[in-house]
Design a protein that fits this description.
It is built from two helices and three strands; from the N terminus they run βααββ. By secondary structure, it is α+β, with helices and mostly antiparallel strands.
């Protein structure tokens, strides 16, 4: 997982928010039955869920070889000011 912050965009367009992102680097989540793991940001889950569901159902190889591991994906949440990238894989 990697976190970014686009300070210039936030200062220009965003109203100040307390606790906009509580994700901590190094956190790991396990989804069972393609359900949102406890403690995961709900907004991030909306971005990840379609890929988690596809992987859980045996899918993969997204975009014809995009990932070195065909049973994985690198997906970011939809927060344009402070996107968090998540590596998801079948275990």
């Amino acid at each position: 997982m990697k976190k970014c912050f686009h300070a210039g965009l936030a200062s220009k367009y965003e109203n100040p928010i307390q606790h906009a992102c509580d994700m901590i680097l190094g956190q790991e989540f396990i989804s069972e039955n393609a359900e949102k793991p406890q403690g995961m940001c709900s907004s991030a889950w909306l971005s990840l869920q379609p890929f988690v569901m596809a992987l859980a159902c045996g899918g993969g190889n997204f975009y014809d070889g995009w990932m070195k591991n065909p049973n994985s994906a690198m997906i970011s949440c939809n927060d344009g000011f402070r996107p968090v990238s998540f590596y998801i894989e079948v275990i």
